[in-house]
Amino acid sequence: MAINTIADLSVTPANNIDYLGSNATGAGNAADIDAVRQNLGAIIARAYADMGGMATVAGTNTITVTSNSTYQTLENGLMIAIVAANSNTGATTLNLDALGAKSVRLPSGGPLVGGEIVQGGWYQFRYDSSLNAAAGGWSLLNPAGIANLTDPNADRVLFWDDSAGRYAWLALAAALEISGTTLRVLETFTVAISDESTAITTGTAKVTFRMPFAATLTAVRASLSTASSSGIPTFDINEGGTTVLSTKLTVDANEKTSTTAATAAVISDSALADDAEITIDVDVAGTGAKGAKITFYWYR
Fold first, then answer.
1. Per-residue pLDDT tens over the stretch 251-294
2. Do 282 and 193 contact (CB within 8 A), yes or no?
3. For residue 24, what pLDDT band results from cuts at 50, 70 and 90?
4. pTM above 0.70, yes or no
5. Where are the alpha helices (DSSP H) in the chain?
6. N or C: which end of the chain has fewer CB within 10 A?
7. Rounded to whole angstroms, what are the CA distances from 104 to 138, 165, 241, 243?
8. DSSP 3-state of 3
9. Could you tell me which CATH number the domain at 183-299 has?
């Protein structure tokens, strides 16, 4: 068989007899020997260029590669490297030297889903006829990893997506929050400071409880089952007798929630100590307000 590419070379020396048309058997003159050496060198140099990503590449999800070697067949174990012309966005095929588009697969064997190939990145492929249900395919040996992830411009968790065989960003659910480098669960705790049928009155320490753990307070909210017909119910929260609010928690007249208050509460001390005594005061009762409750939002 004529040896036109490095893939055509045999591990049996006697089979390597025709290098780009130069026969390497029997006695030959110096010109013939030089031709064999030169052609063998050219085969190796072309393969070296192809492994270095020097092939001509085009396409996004249908990648075409024109190699320096000009391969004649797709052999198991054939390897090629490219510098990606574009970033893939879904399932991807690779067509080497017009030998047919073959599916590109992850090291796990699954298809690409997008983001595994990044424009300008260097990627190595190995052909395997057993891939893609024995239809043949290219195994992408170095799919884009952590270094190739783009900045999401938001707090995200990096995780390994086993089904896709790659790293990805995990968006945080509403109950999750990142504080520094720690992932925390945002918890809520609601306490009633009056019954449902009696109008609230002013006073200190309407409710007293102790913190079951240390927590960072992120927000507070007040609600009423019956709105105040006039006046603005105002509430204060204290840790060990000292307020944790620089602007008190209010519910506007004819409203049932502090979320619509003209002036939002401002937390001045967010660090609640384990076993600290928490008290809730009613500074302003309004008129006819009932069913007052305070909700704490915190993470441990």
1. 999 999 999 999 999 999 999 999 999 999 999 999 999 999 99
2. yes
3. low
4. no
5. 30-51, 131-134
6. N
7. 5, 13, 66, 62
8. strand
9. 2.60.120.340
Q: What would the two tokens of residue 157 be?
A: 């968790």
Would you say residue 149 has pLDDT above 70? no
Answer yes or no: are the C-beta atoms of 88 and 61 closer than 8 Å.
yes
Q: Which tokens hold the place of 101?
A: 């588009």
**285: three-class secondary structure by DSSP:** coil
| Residue-range domain boundaries for the chain | 6-51, 56-148, 183-299
Name which of 241, 251, 246, 253 is nearest 281 in CA terms.
Answer: 241
Q: How far is CA 268 from CA 82, 88, 272, 292, 294, in A?
A: 57, 49, 11, 23, 17
The DSSP symbol for 51 reads H
Angle of CA points 91, 94, 99, to nearest 5°:
140
For 16, the 3-state DSSP assignment is coil
How far out from the chain centre does Cα 118 lie?
A: 15
β-strands 277-284, 182-185 pairing: unpaired
> What is the tens place of the pLDDT at every residue in 189-211?
999 999 999 999 999 999 999 99
Cβ distance 184 to 172 under 8 Å?
A: no
Output Rg (C-alpha) for the chain, integer angstroms: 35
> Which has more pLDDT, 136 or 115?
136
> Residue 10: is it exposed, middle or buried by C-beta count within 10 angstroms (0-12/13-18/19+)?
exposed
39-98, pLDDT tens digit by residue? 777 778 788 888 888 899 999 999 999 999 999 999 999 999 999 999 998 899 999 999
Span 118-128, mean pLDDT? Answer: 94
| Dihedral angle, C-alpha 190, 195, 199, 205, nearest 10 ° | -60
CA 105 to CA 103: how far, in whole Å? 6
